[in-house]
Amino acid sequence: MSTPKLLLADLVNGANHVPSNYIRPISDRPNLIDVLQTSQTSIPLIDLDALNGPNHSHIIKQIGLACQQHGFFQIKNHGIPETMISNILGIAREFFRLPESERLKNYSYDPSKTTRLSTSFNVKTEKVSNWRDFLRFHCHPLQDYVHEWPTNPPSFREEVAEYCSSVRRLVLTLLEAISESLVLDRDYINKKLGKHAQHMAMNYYPPCPQPELTYGLPGHTDPNLITILLQDDVPGLQVLTDAKWVAVNPIPNTFIVNIGDQMQVLSNDRYKSVLHRAVVNCNKERISIPTFYCPSPDAVIGPAPELIDDDHPEVYRNFTYQEYYEKFWNRGLATECCLDMFRSTSSAFT
Ligand code: OGA
Ligand code: NI
């Protein structure tokens, strides 16, 4: 007798149909032929090197505009070496190729676990499953979590720890630039995050025999502050721009940065946490590695007082990140943004 499969990759290996619990209702399918396939720069590509030169204020302006208009931008000259990028993608690929019994050592359904391998989004609460397996773990402060991480591939802990520290440095630079773009003190956002937190995921999207019926991840906004996404060379990420889904096709050695719900709150709605999704394809597996930078659970988040005035009343109430995060995982991925549950009572009727 065979045991039921917990992970998608083991369930569908070689399948020629999507199992029924992955099939979306007709009104909720990706409509792949309607997706805009524009040029590579469908969202702005910003050169971070120029932050250190005479064009500093021009780059700050570009970042501010991208956060306002797209909620997304891509970055080059970000300081993370190409070898580190190819190593981390290689480690993720190797991890998902390990034998089932080895991968399952990390398996858990429970979103509150700080290191876990799982599948779909939240298996306990969702009705339709997503075409994804993922390894998710906390990574700041490193010494609190590294001992929980997988030990296979053997270099996992060492290489991933280096990557996390580099991405954290990059995030801190971006937070200064974003604070500056909002005309706040450069350390304003940094100081609002309590002790800070950093989570990372390795998403594995297996090839799918009928990609028009299902999602890797359906449309959602990210609940955290800011996300730094690394994707391999297989397309799949799409961003909602002017009510149309636009493909963000991979550019080697760049990262995609997106504004999360907490940044929308801090900026009192100046900056947008925008809907995005991952679709799958028939031929190729796809790997993406998002870093979710967050406030620590006890940090109190609310609109910056400097951004509230008669023309811009306070849009959200204050809350702890823990309160927000629990709501996010329990309600499932829904197109309506979780932010609506935190609107300030004074703005709810305007
Ligand atoms: C996410 C996400 C997109 C992708 O993990 O929140 O949006 O391309 N991922 O994997
Ligand atoms: Ni996301």
UniProtKB/TrEMBL annotation:
Cross-referenced Gene3D superfamilies: B-lactam Antibiotic, Isopenicillin N Synthase, Chain
Catalytic activity: salicylate + NADH + O2 + H(+) = 2,3-dihydroxybenzoate + NAD(+) + H2O
Entry-linked InterPro entries: DIOX_N, IPNS-like_FE2OG_OXY, IPNS-like_sf, Oxoglu/Fe-dep_dioxygenase_dom, Plant_2OG-oxidoreductases
Highest taxon above the source species: Eukaryota
GO molecular function, one term: oxidoreductase activity, acting on paired donors, with incorporation or reduction of molecular oxygen
Matches recorded under Pfam families: 2OG-FeII_Oxy, DIOX_N
Record domain Fe2OG dioxygenase: where: 196-295
GO biological process: defense response to oomycetes
Keyword Metal-binding in record: yes
Keywords: Dioxygenase, Iron, Metal-binding, Oxidoreductase
Cofactor(s) named in the record: L-ascorbate
Family: Belongs to the iron/ascorbate-dependent oxidoreductase family.
Protein name: Fe2OG dioxygenase domain-containing protein
